[in-house]
């Protein structure tokens, strides 16, 4: 009988595929069959007991309960499940930001509505025909204020100047019914009368305070929408092929190896998820800037800009201005006649009794400052909690969704077998994944969808920075697609064009694009074309310099 050397037998033993237990009998695949069926797959062809795993392409090639088809199905299932986890986490953030927007938007709209209603209720008895014959002027003002707040391409200072000019023209004619006053004469009258402040200091005071309040309120509301839109778009980014393999190995390979009860090692899970979400983590810096900017503007709204008082008392300011004009009627008229000449006497007889103020009516403003304070307090708490969303997402998914083991567990699934996980945990972001042991990441090819969303965060943060100091940056309504289209070689007038102001001192705002506010139809701007991808890159140059000052 031929005798083989001992080394040969040792080599055979060492090279034999390892089993999950010490016995030589193949283990049952009952657990993985149950899981496979529960995932909606047919059990036809699923092994009853372990088979050799040389056919596997993702899981370790030891004894296994998975065929090639099962491995592929599990890989596709792990991909869809992980993407669903991402979307679910994103929906939670979206819900928080949308709820904050809805709460503030409802409060602000209600504030404006109450001011308008108070004007409609009180002015007929206060001013008679001075009001009833000029209702449209007042309605147009509130309409313009709402359109501005809803992001139409309106210059707020110009809209306020236009209101005072139209009101002065109408009231001057009504207070001087015995004269035939032409449009040409009114143009002259406006030029001379404005030098003598017919409405007192009210127009200037209201313009300063209302402009700051509206800019802050509009930017604040839009900031929540932009944040929510960014999360929505980023949550829809598909996983790479390398990531799909890594997720499969993390979530389903232990089942194939007959270790269904063994949880993935926590650090192993973190490396897989950090590799898969490397691009998403790069949102962190600009995302934190946006959250911080919203908090700062929230303090402005409830503090120096005093939105509750300014917006809630617009009708009272208008009444004060009209009273100033009535009290100074004779001197203003005399100065206008001196500068423009005496208008012709009208042949129509008219009684001016009803045009005079009928009686003193006290206007009151119901304060909702406490409601605003609570809104801001709640918003600041939520914004603070969301600051680290993108860099804490891997640990959140591993602990709550993947159900990884504790950090100190040395009997967890490490990607190959049950044991400890030795590699160090990678840092956050694309650049830190160069040596990720679990996911092959090309750090030279960032995801362009996410880069575009980083740009949207920068633009919105810049807008909030301007709002914080009372400067306006105008946003146009757009569709949900913020990525842009076209070659970007030119900037059409309907995107970059700015209204020409009648007043040379009126500062025109910059223009950027924001997602459309749901539930508020806005005429005029909603059909405009979007800025191209090249335009977004050009805008980055414009926003980076102010951002450094703001930060």
UniProtKB/TrEMBL annotation:
Bilayer topology term: Lipid-anchor; GPI-anchor
Where does the source fall among the domains of life?
Answer: Eukaryota
A GO term from the CC aspect: synapse
Q: Which controlled-vocabulary keywords does the entry list?
A: Cell membrane, Disulfide bond, Glycoprotein, GPI-anchor, Heparan sulfate, Lipoprotein, Membrane, Proteoglycan, Secreted, Signal
Residue segments, region Disordered: 475-526
Record's subcellular location: Cell membrane; Secreted, Extracellular space
Q: What segments bear the compositional bias annotation Low complexity?
A: 481-494
The region annotated as signal peptide is: 1-20
Record's keyword annotation contains Lipoprotein = yes
Which InterPro entries does the record cross-reference, listed alphabetically? Glypican, Glypican_CS
Q: GO MF terms on file?
A: fibroblast growth factor binding
Pfam families reported for this sequence: Glypican
The record's listing under PROSITE patterns reads:
GLYPICAN
Q: A GO BP term, please? A: cell migration
Family note:
Belongs to the glypican family.
Q: What does this chain do?
A: Cell surface proteoglycan.
| Descriptive protein name | Glypican-1
Organism, as annotated:
Sapayoa aenigma
User: Organism classification, top ranks?
Assistant: Eukaryota, Metazoa, Chordata, Craniata, Vertebrata
Q: Which gene encodes it?
A: Gpc1
